[in-house]
Amino acid sequence: MLNPDVVGRTFTGANSFTVTQESITAFALAIGEPNISVAPPTFSISISLTESQALLQESGLDWTRVVHGDQRFEIHRPLVAGDSILCSSTIESARVVAGNEIVTVRSDLHSGSELLISSWSTLVVRA
Amino acid sequence: MTFEVGQELAPQSFFINRAKLVAYADASGDQNPIHQDEEFAKSVGLENVIAHGMFTMALAGRYVSHVAGGSEKVRDFSARFTKPVVVPADTEVELIVSAKVSAVEGSLVKVDLSAICNEVKVLGMAKATFSL
Question: Closest-CA residue in chain B for A45?
Fold first, then answer.
């Protein structure tokens, strides 16, 4: 079970991620996207979900039972090579439905003071 | 391109196979074995290896980028993972993505997306907003 004390709290990642052209190109190639000048719309999941996983595991959630329920991206500006990204994660809600724990995490990706992307991941921990 | 409410946008097919799941796992960092290892997937009660929900969403995102005229125009994109995309060995699974314009507000276009695999909807409530 997730520690209920973390619900509503925001955690700022300790490390920034530098977006490389190699990582954008690899992601674009994997999905067949020919344009590699900006990151594809879902590219930031590799940053946000890594951060969320670390945070939720530290907070008591059993990651081995997690399935992805839904996902949203609000993109103010797409990521480009050279961006240095700091990700803060807010555990917006946690509830139990039919024995399954349902947790929603918002990830805010900033470059300096500029908010580039907010994303929401709803994760279902199977009972 | 101009958009009108109710307009149906041409569908596009994407083909998913095991090699593409491995490439996506490497590119995204999601190395969960249920997306690569048939024995493991079956041991946890799945029918077979399944695609990453985020891979299916990424392909739908590629469709949105194409329709919008570039990834940089995509402002909002959301989906629910309703059914898994099962990917047996040595075969290609077809994912058909299409969209219908739900709103045109100033320079923003909203679309409802459909993502179908073996006649089953694999993404629910899939929506995107892009700028003209």
Answer: B28
If one counts every other C-beta atom within 10 angstroms of the C-beta of residue A2, the result is 18
Closest CA to A75 of B98, B88, B22, B76: B76
Alpha-carbon span B79 to B124, nearest angstrom: 6
For residue B73, give the DSSP letter: G
In a domain, B38, yes or no: yes
Which CATH number fits the domain that encloses residue A31? 3.10.129.10
Domain assignment present for residue B1? The answer is no
Encode pLDDT of A108-125 as tens digits: 999 999 999 999 999 999
User: Nearest CA to B84 among B128, B29, B44, B112?
Assistant: B44
CB contact under 8 A, B61 and A50: no
**Tokens encoding A23:** 């990582």
Q: What's the total number of domains in chain A?
A: 1
Domain of residue B107, CATH code:
3.10.129.10
Contact flag B30-A46 (C-beta cutoff 8 Å): yes
Tally of domains in chain B? 1
- Chain A interface mutation, best of B28, B63, B94, highest count of A Cβ atoms under 10 Å: B28
Range of the structural domain that residue A86 is part of: 4-125
What confidence category does residue A13 fall into, taking pLDDT thresholds of 50, 70 and 90? confident
Nearest Cα of chain B lies from the Cα of A123 at a distance, in angstroms, of: 11
pLDDT at A88 over 80: yes
A23: chain B residues, CB-CB within 8 Å: 27
ipTM score of complex: 0.96
In a domain, B21, yes or no: yes
Query: B18 is in which domain, residue-wise?
Result: 8-131
Q: Chain A partners of B62 at a C-beta cutoff of 8 Å?
A: 31-33, 40
